[in-house]
Design brief:
globular; three-stranded antiparallel β-sheet; alpha/beta; 207 residues; single chain
């Protein structure tokens, strides 16, 4: 088990129950229609997936923390259009076509080459004109530089983080087959307790 996976397994063993949905999930809702299919990659304790399912979406959520996935499937077995699956979101393989893919705070948790694999997978999985919703940490986040540097803009503290540059990232999305409909880099988008990180928000459309 990798150190980062071990960190998240331990974290979610102590934070099993979903809390309120994220600010990003609330931001995304106006772009979705009831009955839309949606994949969430790196769903953690499922708080946003549960929220989307309760709003009428058909949600499949992926995370590598197998115990948490099992717990969530038991806990939310009454939501018929919500399924949690265990798996590394950078290597999911064929999962069928979907209208939308949602990624909050997941792509900055993997190395660049794995991010690129994920963008290509999303491009092959999303239906034409479907949407890819992304929120990630920016290089202007105050945490950037903390810990041991292991690659460009990538550091390890108690787990791995890679901080993204907005223009190169949007270029990689375009190279994967997406048009950028919306992009914003700012504080105030993902506050948590005393933290207010600079994050990047993107809505990309499959062409």
């Amino acid at each position: 088990m990798s150190e980062s996976l071990n960190f998240w397994e331990n974290y979610y063993s102590n934070h099993q129950i979903p809390t309120d949905e994220s600010f990003f999930a609330r931001f995304v809702i106006p772009f979705l229609n009831e009955g839309d299919t949606l994949f969430e990659i790196g769903c953690g304790n499922g708080r946003d997936s549960v929220f989307f399912a309760k709003q009428g979406m058909k949600v499949t959520a992926f995370d590598q923390c197998e115990k948490e996935v099992g717990f969530l499937n038991d806990e939310f077995s009454d939501l018929k259009d919500l399924l949690f699956k265990a798996g590394d979101f950078t290597d999911l393989g064929e999962q069928g076509k979907v209208k939308n893919v949602y990624s909050r705070f997941s792509l900055h948790s993997v190395a660049l080459e794995k991010e690129i694999n994920t963008l290509d997978w999303a491009s092959s999985s999303i239906e034409e004109n479907g949407l890819f919703f992304i929120e990630v940490r920016s290089i202007f986040d105050e945490l950037c530089g903390e810990g041991t540097e292991v690659a460009k803009n990538a550091y390890v503290t108690d787990h791995y983080r890679r901080f993204l540059e907005i223009e190169p990232f949007t270029k990689r999305l375009e190279e994967a087959g997406f048009n950028i409909l919306y992009k914003l880099q700012s504080k105030g988008l993902a506050p948590y307790k005393t933290e207010d990180p600079v994050v990047i928000r993107i809505i990309a459309q499959k062409v």
